[in-house]
Amino acid sequence: MSMFSQLSEIDISKDSVFRETKTGFTLIEMMVAISLFSVAILLISGAYIALLSANRKERISTDAINNISTAVDSMVRDIRTGSCAVGQCISGEYSHFTFTNSDGCTVTYELDAVTNKKLERTNSCTGETDVLTNPNAVSVSNLTFSTFLFKKTSTVTNASAEQVWVTILVTGKTPPAPSTPPQTFHIETGATMRSINVL
User: Fold this and answer.
1) Nearest to 24 by CA among 12, 11, 33, 13
2) Whole-prediction pTM value?
3) Does 152 score more than 60 pLDDT?
4) Residue 47 has pLDDT above 80, yes or no
5) What is the DSSP code (8-state) at residue 83?
6) How far apart are the C-alpha atoms of 97 and 169, rounded to whole Å?
7) What are the DSSP E strand ranges found in 95-183?
């Protein structure tokens, strides 16, 4: 048997050769799959970017509130344990508050005189002025102390006593961030001095 006769017995028709290789994707199927995948990635990345932006806004707001809350808590704690010397703690509304703390030092809380954006505490014993708020985290625009004196006179001993109540109002803004406008906030709290001044 010759070589040509063996080849003639092998089926070399187009159908038999290409029939076995038809298992891949066509170009149109690949383009549709890539298009659907691209749209899905675009939607997911858009949602992810929006989530990051919302997280950044919330973090800025939380940092500002935490910063100012810590400062206000410090003020309230000092006022509650403090007392008023002569000429201090007069009824009215003020931009600063001066009293005598539990260590016997004269303490004043106010906005800083240069930028009016930071809360400060001045202590007469140390001679230092402490900054209570971080201007990078929060900008304080207003600080108001409303002082009330409650007086009571005993009919038995004919002695008078007074107790001081202070309302603290703080207004501030979060720092601006890219595509995020500053947010304004107001915090109000009160403190009653535990010591009673007997007159």
Assistant:
1) 33
2) 0.68
3) yes
4) yes
5) B
6) 12
7) 96-100, 106-111, 119-123, 128-131, 139-153, 160-173
Instruction: Check: CB of residue 106 under 8 Å from CB of residue 89.
Output: no
Rg of the chain over all Cα atoms, to the nearest angstrom: 38
- Express each pLDDT in 153-163 by its tens digit: 666 666 666 78
Domain spans in the chain, listed from the N-terminal domain onward: 32-198
* C-alpha–C-alpha distance, residues 30 and 62, integer Å: 47
75-128 per-position pLDDT tens digit: 999 999 988 877 777 888 998 999 988 888 999 999 887 776 889 999 998 989
- The 10 Å CB-count burial string (b at 16+, else e) for 37-54 is eeeeeeeeeeeeeeeeee
User: d(Cα 99, Cα 84) in Å, to the nearest integer?
Assistant: 5
